[in-house]
Amino acid sequence: MTHPGDSQAVLDTDGLDALVHVLKQRGRTVIGPTVRDHAIVLAELDSGDELPHGWGVELAAGQYRLRERDDVAVFAHSAGPQSWKSFLHPERVRQWSAERGSGGELTICQDEPQSVSYAFLGVRPCDLRAIRILDRVMSGGRYADPAYRSRRSGAFLIAVECTEPGDTCFCVSMGTGPAVDADYDLALTEVLDHRGHRFLCRSGSEEGADVLAELPRRPSDDATRTAASEAVSRAAERMGRSMPPVDLRTLMRDSLEAERWDDVTSRCLSCGNCTMVCPTCFCTTTEDITDLTGDHAERWRRWDSCYDLDFTLLRDGPVRASPRSRYRQWLTHKLGTWHDQFDSSGCVGCGRCIVWCPTGIDLTEEAHALHREAADRGTAP
Questions:
Q1: 44 and 148 co-located in one domain
Q2: What total of structural domains would you count in the chain?
Q3: Could you tell me the residue range of the domain that residue 343 belongs to?
Q4: Is residue 3 included in any domain, yes or no?
Q5: 40 near 334, Cβ under 8 Å?
Q6: Average pLDDT by stretches of 10, the chain with 381 residues
Q7: Who contacts 288 (Cβ-Cβ below 8 Å, separation ≥6)?
Q8: Which has fewest Cβ within 10 Å: 91, 212, 248, 306?
Q9: Which uninterrupted H or E stretch holds 157?
Q10: Of 241, 214, 215, whose CA–CA distance to 361 is shortest?
């Protein structure tokens, strides 16, 4: 996707700090990666110095470790425990509150969507696609969510192309990275070689071009463009995971009675971690609370998970009472029936569900196992 204001330049590390300050001067709340509590998390930034300079991560199924790098790379780390969903579609949102007066009269006050102007710095290509999916789910159709729209409207997105994928990344299989293609205001590619530490920066919107024009920069050069392109290409060749090269939608549809579901659910705790860290899972429920007097009440919307036994609770009991049925629902929906609802996969290949599963269940491994079982049956897509 091109824009009238498309331009590119090279930023040095001081350009990142200037970028944060320019965005704050424009009234935006800047959110980006930073080191906190032995992890790289997303939090509000006051300066570029708070970015994770010289820090990386080691990832495996059920494992996450922060590690100090032997260089000063800023974005050479993979997806952390949070995604941008935490800011666009928060875990808890109050919908209304009610007060009963001394005369018994009841006053209900509906909460208005929070007004905030975000700038997201460091959005990975997989997460950029996840935001695009959430836009379709939460803002499209007949029942758009006003809270999501308020937070998403006008958000300034600074994408960062991946040059060092983690051991649990599989964005290539899902067609979501490691390069960015569209829907960003600025895109950065980090280059660290004998010519120095720098960032190839290109704009993807008119506002992005305006912001870039305010930064200390120099013209892009062939060496930097080549180094950036080669770094992204190498990343595509070093994915830690992959999906079977088949039509996953068909594989899920034809594997509903596979024996593999018994194997995986013997390991699944039904804890819902995978849905909490997934950048596209969006299900919610509501809960009403009161104070001890009963004169004040509130209704809150909060995240819910299809692993919760009460998620499908009806009068005669839950529709999906077994862990087998709940795990199967999650995986077949994410990789299969999501297409029927939203015209795309619900998985972007970030690998968070693999890392943050306490028993190390790997959905790519499960997809390969289902494919092998289908091949043995002679029904592989």
A1: yes
A2: 2
A3: 248-377
A4: no
A5: no
A6: 64 96 97 96 96 96 96 93 95 94 90 90 97 93 88 95 95 96 95 95 96 96 96 95 96 96 95 96 95 93 94 89 95 96 95 97 97 88 77
A7: 297, 298, 299, 300
A8: 91
A9: strand 156-160
A10: 241
